Amino acid sequence: MGRIAIVVGFFALVILLAVGLKRDPREVPSPLIGKPAPAFELPRLGSAQRFSPKDMQGKVWLLNVWASWCVTCRDEHPVLVDFARTKRAPLVGLNYKDQSDDARKWLARFGDPYQFSVVDADGRIGIDYGVYGGPETYLIDRAGVIRFKQIGPVTPELLTGKIIPMIAELER
Amino acid sequence: MIAELGHFALALALCVAFAQGVLPLVGAARGNARWMAFARPAAAAQFLLVALAFCALGWSFAQNDFSLAYVAQNSNSKLPLPYRLSAVWGGHEGSLLLWILMLAGWTLAVALASRSLPDALVARTLGVLGLVAAAFHAFILFTSNPFERLARVPADGRDLNPLLQDPGLIFHPPMLYMGYVGFSVAFALSIAALASGKLDAAWARWSRPWTIAAWMFLTLGIALGSIWAYYELGWGGWWFWDPVENASFMPWLIGTALIHSLAVTEKRGALKSWTLLLAITAFSLSLLGTFLVRSGVLTSVHAFATDPRRGIFILVLLALVIGSSLALFVARAPRGATGGAFEVVSRETLLLVNNLLLAAACGTVLLGTLYPLAIDALGMGKISVGPPYFNTVFVPLMVPLLFFVALGPQASWHSASLAELAARMKYALLFAIAGGLAIPFAMGSFAPLVALSMALVLWVVASAWLQLRARVAPAGPGVRTRLAALARQPRHYWGMHVAHLGLAVFVVGVALSKGYESEKEVRMSPGDTLTLGMYGVRMLGVREAPGPNYTAVVADMELVRDGQVVMRLYPEKRHYFSSQMPMTEAAIDPGLTRDVYVALGDPLGGGAWSVRAHVKPFVDWIWGGCLLMAFGGLLALLDRRYRAAARATAASEAVAAARA
Known about the structure:
The structure holds 2 protein chains of 2 kinds. In chain A, 35% of the residues are buried. Chain A has a 5-stranded mixed sheet with strand order 5-4-3-6-7. In chain A, strands 1-2 form a two-stranded antiparallel ribbon. Helices cover 40% and strands 19% of the residues of chain A. Chain B starts with a helix and ends with a helix.
């Protein structure tokens, strides 16, 4: 009897762990989904102009958090460059806790997929948006409501499977 | 080039480990001595190859080779060299490399120290260790290669997580892994015993020192981690019931049970199946811990970036290793009562009760650790299980455990008399109750839980004293004679008492620091004094201090008692260049009867800071107790009889060989 219990218990444990693997414990649904994107006004990188999310009213757009110190951002970068070429939706960069010089050099070296980037040097806006670290990407609809948030790099699969269809739906 | 050499060494180690796993096992099954003899040289070769790979990674860190993805992610050219070297195990890939280095080290130790063991047992044990090693080599090579190069080389590394930039990183993980992985030896010996069906006192005597050694390292490793958390995390706690802490604590609990059950198996030939099951469980829990930490199924301060492939791989590994050993256990373990029978009141029974309590404690920890996972898996939401659960279920199990810790060594094997036990222990019981009631009043206020804990502590101490007295009584009267008799006691006997006293010391620390802690959080400007009990903490000023890869704000404080300055304290707040999170470096004035712990909070503007101070009575006894427990293990390990037994067997073998 006891031996059967051991075997059954062990199988239950393995099944539990297998199911648990498919779930991400950190994937706490962002409280910002369905809420208006927090307002800000920040200078653009390398320009005197300022930008605020309300400038994008009426457009479906993407806000991508990046920094030159962020190694994963560099992996994500070519995906964004390809996406920008399709001109599917405006992509704005939020240059997060970075040195502007480093950021400009980084874009010059690897290419600039962004319509423009805004400078969040001290990370204050990052706090409003609940940024864990780079990269993160927000999909914002015409009314300025956050519809989707990606923590970590945007992948080609995520773009074609989720983000681009969502853009199409939101633009309808 | 060096990195490629390391990578190659790892790949070669996989092949060697596989051969070490297969050939000797087949050889043992067929009685082929030459195949069995392959185990020892293979173990040595494997250790050399893994050590080479490990050194290659260390070299890459020392040389700031940021073309390696792992180095780029966990180091920085500004990072001081000792931390660059310990950053080797600061991330996922390197931790696994450390894991496998430890496994190779233990395997080599078995190969070297097993001259007196039967060849088939050695071959099987090393074979099982080889198979485990092969699985982990494959895991590293296919999912977690630390030698992977980056296509684009960054100018500098991302730096080691600031939480890890502490001497704790240098000592805690190696010590912990020594213990964790060390249970693999008892595991392999058990599998070998199951495979051969030979499960005698000699087998148990062989398993004991390996189990005790692993347990000793695990005790030290857990204690080091706890000290680290105490001063580094900045809120003065010493145990958080974090999933990863639990992952190391569960093998410890089962390992403790195993040590005791091995004693019964060796001395009395009883509890054989139970001993085997514990040995399998201890190592399985080590593997489960590795899975929980490495797969990222649970959130924890220790969790690293995760990759689903890794989780699947290690889950399959876990299922294969544990599943096949349990299957072997179910099929082959001796059934029913084996070996020496024992009465209801006997040392065997008491040790079995101790085992069941430890196993139950482990079960509650496992339940609490996996419960959030189960709830999430059932789609019932995200919850976390914290100290309230663990304290509620764990403490009630520890109370009877402490009670029986004192009784176990008093009872005789096979059959003890309850009346005799009661007669011997009645004054100890009275002493414990009286002392338990008195101590809280001496500390200032009565608390039932403190009284209970202290009574149990005194109960354990009094029992040890009674026993030692009874042990030396036959030597005759006179302090000298008795001390001489004490000194003659075997080391394993001392080891037991030292470890049990360590447990008592540990409980003193837990109970008193929890029961009589005082804490204050205030706003302070230079010149202000915070009063906490009989201590005052005066802030003299705050200054900036640059570090190698961070800037710090250091508060200059004086600890005052009775108008006298006891000590200068320098709590820090560090901002590492690589991280947004400020790190708190608490300043501690440690003491035998209390710690004064001061942590700098946030700036409040106008030169004012929030400052938190704790006075923690007897908190250092927690780690002192752990140290005593580990020292008890060391004493038991150094016992003559292991070496004597080894020599005797070797001698008899030599004689047999000479005759043949």
